[in-house]
Batch of 4 targets.
Target 1
Amino acid sequence: MSVNYNLDRDAAEGEFFSFLASLYVTRSPLDPLSYGVKLDAAYTLQNDVSTSNSPFQYRAFNSQLGGGGYARFGLAPHMAAGAEVGYAGRSYFGDAAPGVASRRTGHSLTARAFWQYDPGNRLLNPTVSLRLEKENADGSEFRSAPSPGVNLSNLFYLLEDFRFSVSVDFIRKQFDEASTARRENKLTGRLGATYRAAKRWTILGEISSIRNLSNVSTFDYRQTVISAGVSYSLF
C-alpha cells in the first residue's frame, strides 16, 4: 500500500493511493542459477480535486493485473546478473469509449536486464539495469513505440534495520501514432529509505524529482513527489 504527495499543488491530480499485491515463485533460490514466475495486481485511486473543494478527494483510477518470468545468475560472491520479462493489462475507470484515440486502457510489455553487486558495504552496493518498454493502449494517443531506459542505483546500509537508496532513471518514449507525433525524455532522481519494523512489516519512504521533456507542451513538466508506504510479506 502506498500514497504520494506532489509539492506542486497544481499537480494534485498526479497523487495516487495504491494497493499492490505480488506473488513470486522461485526455483532453486539458493543456487547460482535461480528462476521463476511472478504475478502482481494493483488497484489505484486518484486525487480528483477538480470535483471537490477538499484537497483530498480520491476516486477509482485504474486496475492492473500482470505477470512474467525472471532469472538470476550468480557471477561471483555478492555479484549477480539477471533478466526478466513482463506483461501487464490495465483498465482505466472512466476511460474514453472503445475506438476513441484518447483511450488509455490496454496492456504493456517490458524486458529488463541487470547487473548487481551487493556485498553489504555501508556505502557501495550498486545495480545497473537496462530495459525496453512498450505501451499498447487501445487509443493511438497513448500507444508507444518500444522505449529504451536505463537505471543506476545504489544501496546504503548505514543503520541496523534501515536501508537507504539513491537512483537515477532515464527513459525515452515515442508516440508516433498520436495526432501530434510525441517525444518524451523522462529523467527521475530518487532518494528512498526502508525500515523493517517487524519480521514481515516494512515501512517505505521516498522523495522523487521528475523532469519530463516533450515536444508537446501538455506533456512537458517538472514534479517533486513525496511517497510513503507499508509492505507486508507472507513468507
Target 2
Amino acid sequence: MMNTTGHAARGRTRSTVLIFALAIGALLAVGGLFGAAASVIGILGDLWNGRVDLLTGSAPRVAIDGAPADAGASETNGVTYSGALVTADAPLALPRALQAISAALGALVVISGGLLLVLLAVRMLHTRPFARVLTWGLGVVGLVAILAATVAPQLEAAAVAIGIRELGYAVYDDAHDGSFVAGGQDVLALPLWDPLWILDRVDPVLLMVGITLGVLGFLVADAVRMQRDVEGLV
C-alpha cells in the first residue's frame, strides 16, 4: 500500500511539473511571437530609428550643484556626448528590412525555446519517447541563438550605416580632417567593419548559450546511441 501510494504521489508531482512546464513554454512562445510581431510592425511602419556615434567638438552644458556648466570640467571630469538617435519617416526599405530580420532572430530564440518546452512536456505527459525531439530541439534552438548572437548585431549595424547614408547626414570618413571645434559642424561615425569591431558587436552570453545547447543536443544523441548499442548486447 505504501509503495502504491508513493508511486501515485510521484506520478501526480510529475504531471504537475510537466503541466507547469507546458504552460511556461506556451507563454514564452506566444509572448515571443506577439513581441516579435509588434517589433517588426513598428520597424516597418513607424518612424525609422538608428543609434550611431556622434563626433563633436561641443560639450553638453550641464550645471553641477548650481555652478556654471564649464566649472570643474576637465579631461577626466565632465559630461560628454556618447551618441545620437537618428529618426526619419523616409521609406528606407533595406534598412528597415535588415532591422526587422535582426529583431526576428532575437525573438526566435524565445519562440523556439518555448516550443521545445511545449513539445517535450506534451510527449512526456503522454509517456511517449522524446529523445529525438530533445536532440533536434536543442540543436535548432542552439543554432538560432548563435545566429541571434552573431548575425543579428551585424544586420542592425548594416541597417544603421545604410540608413544614415541614404538620409544624407554628414559622416566621418577619410575625407574628414578629424578636427572638431565647439560650435562647429558635427558628424556621425558609422559602424566599423574591421574584424575586431565585428567581434565586439557579438553577444558573448547568447553565443555561449547557443553553443552549449548545441553541444547538449549532440551529447543527448550520442547517449541515446550508446544506450541502444548496450541494449543490443544484452
Target 3
Amino acid sequence: MSYLLRAAFAAIVFLLSSTSVTTHAASLWFGDEDYLRRFDPVTLQITLRLTLNDLGDTQALAPDAEDNSLWLLTDERLLKYDAAGAVALRLSYSQLGMGDDDDDGAGLLLDPYDRSIWLVSGSTLLHLDNRGNRLSKTALPAPARAAALALSERVWVLGDRVLWQYSAQGALLARHDLRQLMQDEPKRLAIDSISGKIWLAGDKQLLQFTPAYSGPLRQDNNTSSLRG
C-alpha cells in the first residue's frame, strides 16, 4: 500500500467520553509512517507529537478514554502509549504469536466495557487485556480486510466477500456469504448496534443490510447470524 493510502487509511479517531462531555475532553489522533499527533478538536492545536522512528508503518490506532492511553498497531509490532506519550507496552508480532502473513493490519478495536483490545491482522484474530495479556487467539478462515466491534462485544470480521461474526471469547458464531449481495469488492465495515444494521462499502457500492436471527451457525452459504 502506498504512503498516501496508508496516511488516508491510518485510523483518525475521536477519543470521546462515554456519558458526559465534562468527564474527559475529546482528542483527535492522526498517525502516519513518521509521527503520531494528538490534536485538541476545538482549537486544532497539536497537544502531543510522538516520533515513530523505526517502529514500522502505522496500521491502526485505538484510544482508551479511561486513562487517555493509545494503542498503536504497525506492520511490525503493537504498542501502547500512556497519556504523557511514554511507551507503556511494546509487543512484536512474534511475541504476539503472529506469523509473517499477519503484517497487514485490518483492525484494532477497543472494548470500552473491559478496556480489552482486539487485533485483527492477516488471518489472525487476537484478543488481549489492557495489559497486553492474551485472552484468546483465533485463526481466521481467510485474511481479513476490515473489522468492527458491536455493543454486544461481538466482533465482525470482513473477508473477501464473506463476513464472520465472533463471540467475545473468539468463537465463530455466524458466517455470511456476500457474493449475492455485493458486486463490488467490500473493503470497509461498520456496525450500527442500535438498529442491528451492518454497512459495507466498496469502491463503488455501499450496502446496508440487517442480519436476521436464524439459530446457531449453519455450515452453508446461506445468510445466517446472531444479531449484535
Target 4
Amino acid sequence: MTEQTICENLTLKIPEGFTVLDEKNLARIFGGEGSDRWCAANGDESVLLTVVWQKVNPILAALSDMKVMARRNAQLTEKAYQAYGYRFGEFFSLQGRDGSLEGYSYSFSGKNGQRSAETVLIRQKRMIYNVSCVSRAEKAMEGQEALRQALG
C-alpha cells in the first residue's frame, strides 16, 4: 500500500488495487474541471475514493465542532443529491491517524444503479477535507474498507 499527500497536508494510504486518476478521468468523474479534488478508483471504478477540500478561516476552523460540521455537510449533500433519490444512513465516528474523525453515510441512484457512500471530514491547519468513498451498492462493504484503509 502506497501513500499520497494531497494538497500539501493530507496523507492517505492508497488501498491495493486502486489507481490515482489523471485529470481527464477526474473531469469525467466529477463532471468538469477543477483543482480542489482528487480521486483513486479500483480497477472497474465500482469503488471511488474521493477528496475535495476548501480553505477556511483558521480561527473559525479551530472553534468549530467537527460533529456539527459533519451534520452541516450532510445537509448540503442531501440538497445536492435530492434529485437522485438521496437517503441518509447514519452519523458515525472512527479513528484515523489524526485521531477521532466524524462522518456520515448515505445512498443515492447513480447512472448505473444504486450507490452507497461514506464521507469523513478532516480538519488540518486551514483546510477542511471531505474524504469520501462512493461505491456500487453491492460493493458497499468493499468501499467502507477502502475508506478505513485510506485513513488508517
